[in-house]
Amino acid sequence: MSDLTKNNNGCGTNGNGANGTETTGKTGATLSAAELYRRGRALCFGLDGVKIDGPKGLRVLTEAAKAGSLEAQGELAEALADGLQGTQPDAARAVAVAKKPAQAGNPFALDTLGACFRDGLGGLPKDEAKARACFARAFEGFKRLAAEPNPDARALCYLGCYLGDGRGSADGKPNESPEVAAKTARLWRRSAELGFATAAANIARCYLSGDGVKQDEAEGVRWLRAAANLGYWSAISELGEIYFYGACGVPEDKAKGLAALRTVAEAGDLEATRFLANFYLTGQDGVEQNQAEAARLYRRAAEAGDAGSARWLGMCYMEGQGVPKNPTEGTRWLLKAAEAGDADAARFLGVIYVRGLGVAANPTEGTRWLRRAAEAGDVDAARALGICYLNGDAGEENPDEGVRWLLIAAEAGDADAAKALKAAGIRVKRGKSEGGLLGRIFGKGKK
Q1: Taking a C-beta distance cutoff of 8 angstroms, is the pair 78, 61 a contact?
Q2: Which of 92, 204, 260, 303 is deepest in the core (most CB within 10 A)?
Q3: 316: number of CA atoms within 13 Å, CB side?
Q4: Pick from 275, 250, 280: which is nearest to 265 by CA?
Q5: Residue 85 to residue 79: CA distance in whole angstroms
Q6: Which long-range CB contacts under 8 A does 433-437 form with residues at least 24 apart?
Q7: pTM of the complete model
């Protein structure tokens, strides 16, 4: 992949570089690769007034890529890596598709490879140097496309992201200065004005929070509606929450809010499905409690790969909420969530095994899961792990290790950990710098 660092001009992403190959779409009409590319990207990402249809867009973009459009290949790689609405990510295929357009300088393909090198996905090793090289070339490509007389809407949006999140800087560090926030907001607004759904949602959040622009809730809601009208699931969900709670100057309308959440949940939005299930589980905020419906929604999202829903489903089985109480099944779902990186699930598993809650006690296994959650930054897990070592519940008494983890939790602001240390006769100095114990163990700036 070293050839990805070569400096060449590459190709644009406005459809001008596609060859003249003719192909036949599903309707029987003969379309050029360029036209297929334009239609496919509009369906994939919500452009040109076209409502997002991830599965259909992916098919059309794939057809354009097969017909020889390097632009289509570049954005197909991105779509495969991220997983469009209604589709699953496929990093291995994304890497394979991205190589040729990346070599030609396509910024979307370069961004895809950069992310895969950074995270070690798609069969690529984790390699920060190669990731930075890919991001640097992608940044130049996005700047070039954004500067054209007819700028590419998606390039404008990406350029704004790169300025703030560090992908556009030499050291890879985010830049949260007011000046960069304002420039990012201008780029996102320009992209949104050209009809890009993601940019519309991004600038909406800027106006709602006052990030980079003067706070204006009415303007924020207006742009959120624009993104929702293009079928952007997260915008629909956020509008649903606004209606449900009567926020941002919008009158409360719980029926309208729930309807919006149901719309995207039934369409396949896993986060919205989990959020809706949470309402049904507790019967909160005026929603009629229906734990069986909550468990059904959790299961559907969990089976589609949502770790948070797997954790909730596991707890439903542990408690017998909406499903028959079954600690074995509950532990199985919690394990799925924990293995997918859900720190809360790992902590729950740790407590379950240490205490033998519905399953045979296994202090070694419990400690292992508590440690994994604690090392991921879960303060509650750090406190629990420290207490286990102090009390011998970890399978061994290890006061030094117990104090170490309690200090980590206490330095992070956990009052119960501080009390436990005080009871053990240890005083905690609060407000330590990043060079203190917490910084040494977790590392400065770890996400």
Answers
A1: no
A2: 204
A3: 27
A4: 275
A5: 10
A6: 436/411, 437/404, 437/407, 437/408, 437/411
A7: 0.77
